[in-house]
Amino acid sequence: MDDPKTGRSPVWCDPDGSVQETLAYGGVHVWRAGLDRSPETVSLLLNRLPACERERALRFRFPLHRGRFVLARSILRRILNFYLGTDPGEIHLSVNRYGKPRLDAKQHRSELRFNLSHSQGLALYIVAEGREVGIDVEYSDHSRTPEKIARRFFSPAEADIIESLPEKRRRGAFFSCWTRKEAFVKAMGGGLSVPLGEFTVTVRPEDPPKVLYTAWDDSGPSKWTLMDIDPGGGYAAAAAAAGTIGPVRYFSADFAFCSN
């Protein structure tokens, strides 16, 4: 386990029987998983998904993207199994009007909240009890132009900070800001209805992650907590939660899937 405020890279532990018991006191769990598996494993898991998710998977044109979607959803179900004690195939999911996934309230009487994000071959998941959470992971793509994207989509204050930095530091600041903003939007559950330019977060990687301003609510920043996550491998990530984040535990979700 690792305190997100120390700046150290987290240690991703294998889950055990205590997983369900450790969400008390405002704690959150963060799970990390690789999404590139063999075609045989993808085929096996595709057939285990509910019909609606199989149909969505089959819409992907390229096998690589299809496989990563199948793994991301299959791993989500295995993670939720640790908390619900329900067979992964019997876990019913729904989405809110903006597409945020959640447990189907008609099938599960649980206060469990979760969110997921994946980029390239890596997926991150966050789980909490009784409060909304969001997570975002992004691969640091050097083909992007941070200044132009920030000026177009971020708040003016955020774009100004990025442009003021030495060129070699702009990319790190851009991805730090981006993941913090996306995690916040996903936690709120508003999707694309929340304009990225109408709220401001801290920008530079060394700045404590925090919501500074929300155009729609003067007290908005005090209602949410942000945290940075270091997934390694050239990725940037952040998470957001309603209220204050308590103890954080990090788990590996690189499960072995078998045909039985």
Helix coverage percent of residues? 25-40%
Approximately what portion of the residues adopt beta-strand conformation?
15-25%
Structural class estimated from helices and strands? alpha+beta
What name does the CATH topology of the largest domain carry?
Answer: Ribosomal Protein L22, Chain A
C-alpha Rg (nearest Å): 18 Å
Describe the structure.
It is a single chain. The protein has 260 residues and is of the alpha+beta class. It has two domains: 19-131 and 248-252, 4'-phosphopantetheinyl transferase domain (Ribosomal Protein L22, Chain A, Alpha-Beta Complex), CATH 3.90.470; 138-242, 4'-phosphopantetheinyl transferase domain (Ribosomal Protein L22, Chain A). The protein is 30% helix and 24% strand. A hairpin with a 2-residue loop joins strand 4 and strand 5 (122-129). Helix 5 (156-164) runs antiparallel to helix 6 (167-188). The model has no long low-confidence stretch (mean pLDDT 92).
Describe the protein's topology.
Elements: E1 28-34, H1 39-48, H2 51-58, H3 63-84, E2 93-95, E3 101-103, E4 112-119, E5 122-129, E6 133-139, H4 146-153, H5 156-164, H6 167-188, E7 199-201, E8 211-214, E9 224-229, E10 235-242, E11 248-252
Parallel strand pairs: 1-11
Antiparallel strand pairs: 1-5, 2-3, 4-5, 6-10, 7-8, 9-10
In short:
The protein is an alpha+beta fold. It has helices spanning 39-48, 51-58, 63-84, 146-153, 156-164, 167-188; strands at 28-34, 93-95, 101-103, 112-119, 122-129, 133-139, 199-201, 211-214, 224-229, 235-242, 248-252.
Key structural traits:
Ribosomal Protein L22, Chain A; three-stranded antiparallel sheet; alpha+beta; 6 helices; globular; four-stranded mixed sheet; 260 residues
